[in-house]
Write a structure and sequence with these properties.
The chain has 2 domains: about 5-150 and about 200-265, Rossmann fold (3-Layer(aba) Sandwich), CATH 3.40.50.150; about 155-200, no CATH class. The protein is about 40% helix and about 20% strand. It contains 11 helices and 9 strands. It has helices at about 5-15, 25-40, 55-60, 75-85, 120, 125-140, 155-165, 170-180, 200-210, 230-235, 240-250, and strands at about 45-50, 65-70, 95-100, 110-115, 140-150, 185, 195-200, 215-220, 260-265. It has a 7-stranded mixed beta sheet with strand order 3-2-1-4-5-9-8, sandwiched between helices. Helix 3 (about 55-60) links the parallel strand 1 and strand 2 (about 65-70). The N and C termini lie far apart (about 40 Å).
Length: about 270
């Protein structure tokens, strides 16, 4: 099965539109927006949200007057995003399209910023990831920024420890492979998780960006160890505790391996 078919099949079973609404999702959403704001270009500017799923970040950026194009390989995601676009009070996107990060339908030097969300962990083969990064570079203007999102090498290990999944021999075998190689393969039967993926060490992500011709400027942890707080959802509802959770995420952002998701920022040479 081709990787694109595998990705589409996975998201036919998993509802990505609900992911940011529970568990670590609200924390991830706030921190991702916080970090994106840090690197946004001056208006007017064009942003490509590649692998942007149902458009959570696309629509948020559109409210700030950016020209935003949403691209995702999963038709279901684009259908959901179009349903949002049809609402009377919805901010307007420049375009919504089914597309592959490895072959973007935009001219050279078109965008001020490109965001790569899912592609860098769904594309388990390094050659595919390098093609996707090179495509982002191609469509960027000189001096433009790529925001490259990835999952850290130890995400499955830490999650498995907190949920007791490491006592399942199949799960332990899976995360052993992840830690040793970065590859997620042989998921336990019935596990609702990526069947095939690549999880990065921060230095690996930066090296891939360099190999594709971009210059990394910062690699940051998005939520850090804050996702480990007891009763995260309940604590998030308490405003005082929420601020403490966010402060910890900010405090630890320079140690990306402490959390499940990382952001590497890289620039196209002028």
């Amino acid at each position: 099965m081709k990787i694109e078919e595998e990705i589409i099949k996975y998201y036919e079973r998993y509802d990505e539109s609900k992911r940011l609404a529970s568990d670590i999702g609200p924390l991830e959403l706030v921190r991702t927006q916080e970090l994106i704001k840090r690197f946004l270009p001056s208006l007017p500017a064009v942003i490509l949200d590649v692998g942007g799923a149902t458009g959570v970040y696309s629509y948020w950026l559109a409210t700030q007057k950016y020209t935003v194009h949403l691209v995702d390989i999963v038709p279901r995601h684009i259908e959901r995003a179009k349903a949002v676009a049809e609402q009377a009070d919805s901010p307007k996107l420049a375009s919504l399209r089914v597309g592959d990060a490895r072959k973007l339908d935009f001219r050279d030097g078109y965008a001020d910023m490109v965001m790569l969300h899912g592609p860098l962990y769904h594309l388990a083969d390094k050659r595919d990831r390098l093609v996707a990064i090179a495509e982002a570079k191609r469509v960027l203007k000189a001096g433009g920024l790529l925001l490259a999102f990835a999952i850290t090498r130890y995400a499955g290990l830490i999650y498995g420890l907190t949920k007791g999944l490491v006592f399942n021999r199949d799960y332990l075998r899976m995360i052993t492979t992840e830690v040793e190689t970065g590859q997620r393969v042989d998921c336990p039967p019935g596990a609702m998780t990526f069947p095939n993926a690549y999880f990065h060490l921060p230095q690996e992500l930066e090296q891939e960006l360099r190999e594709a011709g971009l210059q990394p400027e910062a690699t940051l942890g998005i939520i850090g160890p804050s996702w480990l707080v007891p009763d995260l959802e309940g604590s998030w509802e308490d405003q005082e505790k929420r601020q403490a959770i966010l402060e910890i995420a900010r405090l630890a952002e320079r140690e990306p391996v402490l959390g499940p998701r990382i952001l590497s920022v890289a620039r196209k040479a002028i």
